[in-house]
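User: Structure please.
Assistant: Input sequence and predicted structure:
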Amino acid sequence: QVQLVESGGGLVQAGGSLRLSCAASGIILSINAMGWYRQAPGKERELVSVITSGGSTNYADSVKGRFTISRDNAKNTVYLQMNSLKPEDTAVYYCNANVNRGYGLGYNDYWGQGTQVTVSS
């Protein structure tokens, strides 16, 4: 099995910064894309940012210029640096990884348990 463990969430004032981390562990042959999603109360889960194994990145328009995604392939870890946070960034942030466990299973998506980010005004 594969586990994704997130850390780094918390409470911050508007304009502040937080750094989220997500480490994948378990039986892992390779990881394709890794990314961050978020879900605010009463809203659907939405993509925040994604990064491929080669380092290509994509961001939601709402976070461009404020958030930066990166990854350490040797550690199977993805990071999300969040700057200039706004109250509308408040949500549960989920890590996602597209993992190949080998054994002919192909790539499958795995999710972390989520970490709360709260931005006060």
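Residues 34 and 97 are 4 Å apart (CA to CA).
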